[in-house]
Request: fold
Amino acid sequence: MGKVKNATNAQPQPTADRATMPINTALRGLLCDRLFWTVAALLALVLGLPASGSLFAHLFPALERPVYLQEPFTQLLWQHCKLVGLSSLVATIIGSLAGIAVTRAAGQAFKPMVDTLATMGQTFPPVAVLAVAVPLVGFGELPALIALTLYGLLPVLQGTVAGLQAVPEPMQQAARGLGLSPWQSLWQLEVPMALPVWLAGVRASVIINIGTAAIASTVGAKTLGSPIIVGLSGFNTAYILQGALVVGLLAVVTDMAFERVASRVAWQA
Reply:
């Protein structure tokens, strides 16, 4: 009887509070997330710039048109991200494959030549690449894509080579002792261990291309550099400031996103 009485007197645990605990925890984590607030600031800036005429008119009273309205900033942001994404993807694929090739026994003889070519692509000014590419492929995004790809190769190549060469030799010998083939050792041992350094090279390449893509507007590509180029040609400081703010904040968001990914990759490694 005592057991029955204790069972009937026991109060059931509320399930509503338990159900809302994960939601509250996730919400608190989101509100404390720097990346979330930085992305929100970027979106607020892009969406709010067309309505900021009074602010920029107060800051620059001598300008008749203080806000860039030739193209929506949302469209410029999308086209800028698309151009950077495509060029960075091509540079990452080429740089990674070249880095893997020159760290193999059959390709080590080509490493100085590959390094020289990648360094030339990095040191050759993107404006000069655009000037050479435009007569060959015309105006638009294609010459900008070529220039940005060449400009982003070196960091990816260096990160790939440095990461693969940093794998300890005893671990490679142990992999061979376990019967792994060279390709199995590459994908199961070397690539996972080189991933943090490789990601750092990709991160540097993408950040560089975000800033460099602004000059693509000089050859007809619509990017966040359009307000900057128009502002420079028309002596409109407000346009330059608006374009620079969005480009800078986009670079900050991208860098913070890579930092988030890099911390998880390092933890898993």
The radius of gyration is 26 Å. The CA atoms of residues 158 and 201 lie 7 Å apart. Residues 35-268 form a domain with the MetI-like fold fold (CATH 1.10.3720.10). The chain has a mean pLDDT of 83.
